[in-house]
């Protein structure tokens, strides 16, 4: 049988990095087996739908390179892939249940159900719909919900991630399959769709595990073979306690892409939340993931979302990029001031900051001083551990010595390095004093790449002029 996996999000909110992990794992399982990966949008609750959320999901998958073989926007042999377009099909499945005597029209009003609940509470018993099956239910005409008639039993089942699971009959109840608005419930629709679309692996979040015994019961009632079930543990917030939420700073995938996180790094990071291949390797490319991923190595406990780790990983991917490629990716991220500078100059600047760059939107902060003279910032000296101990006169002397030295240089990095080292010796200062002072004077930035390389890119004229500005200020 061909492996067919699906990602079946409900467009009821934006997809954050946690939500898309399910898609990545389903994608990997399909690609690894040479099978198909399907996108199905689950619209069963019109009230909770959010305008644009479906497109957002599609864009997010594209941005990460999680290409699907069938889906709402590209069609496929099992179309349509949008649940709201499949309503007639759910009615056929519902009819099959009715014909088999496994579904009934639910005749009760909300008040009546509330009364049953209260009675159960008084009797200290759990409330179950199946204890209130109507004796002569009306024929179902769609104006009332259609409820599944369960056959309670104990279940044991294998979950590809969680292992052997079991539940007693008390976990099983009659649940609604069709609502009175003509829409199926998720509980019903996903089972019909998975069967129609010949899905072999149902990979989804932990929130569905409590309902699984009901799903197993429904597979049997419909005479369906159950697919492989794989339950993903929650993604936890940075403190490792509760489920990740927007408040923890988990942005959605497209926000990260806009900030200049590389899709490759995001994919590697997302995969690493709750999965590794059992070795020390921390960073994986997509081909490596396709080769090495396996559901049985997904950890069962919740995985922690750690944005610093993402930052580190993204930096690692950026360092690996050939300069040319990085340059292309940076096009939209330069500070406005860079527009007047020739491409060669920008390339040279980029080569210097590549090592330290963690995400592309950091580019202006890292490079602005290469393109514009920042005003003298006295706090850079007064807040510097060593420099603040020097008198203005001492600072002036050091800067004048630097000027004299740099006047002689041809401003290649090598020559600058040699002259700066000679000056260091002559002045009797520590690098943390002398080089920090020169760095501050020539950049007015809290951090910069190597001093000699930075001066070489800035060039003689700009470097000397900035030293002079600092001197004048002092
Ligand atoms: N629509 C469900 C969700 O968004 C999908 C669960 C499933 O994959 O079956 O969580």
Care to describe what's here?
By secondary structure, the protein is mostly helical. Helix content is 44%, strand content 9%. It is built from 19 helices and 11 strands. The strands form 5 sheets. It has a 3-stranded antiparallel sheet. Helix 6 links the parallel strand 8 and strand 9. Helix 8 crosses helix 10. The longest helix is centred in the C-terminal third of the chain and has 16 residues, at 392-407. It is elongated and about 105 Å long. The termini are far apart. The model has no long low-confidence stretch (mean pLDDT 95). Glutamic acid binds at residues 8-10, 42, 186, 190, 204-205. Glutamic acid (GLU) is lined by residues 8-10, 42, 186, 190, 204-205.
Sketch the topology as an H/E string, one letter per element: EHEHHEHEEEEHEHEEHHHEHHHHHHHHHH
Question: How many helical stretches?
Answer: 19
The end-to-end span amounts to 78 Å
CA gyration radius, whole angstroms: 32 Å
Mean pLDDT, all residues: 95
Beta-strand share of residues: 5-15%
Strand order of the largest sheet: 3-4-7
Bound small-molecule species: glutamic acid
> Biggest β-sheet, characterized?
3 strands, antiparallel
Pairing-aware structural class of the strands and helices?
mainly alpha
Helix content: 40-55%
List keywords for this structure.
474 residues; mainly alpha; 19 helices; binds glutamic acid
Give the structure's gist in a few sentences:
The protein has 474 residues and is mostly helical. The chain has helices at 19-32, 53-64, 87-99, 110-122, 186-196, 212-221, 253-258, 263-272, 286-292, 307-320, 323-330, 343-353, 363-371, 379-382, 392-407, 413-427, 431-443, 451-458, 460-473; strands spanning 4-7, 36-39, 103-105, 146-148, 155-159, 163-167, 176-178, 201-205, 228-232, 235-236, 303-304.
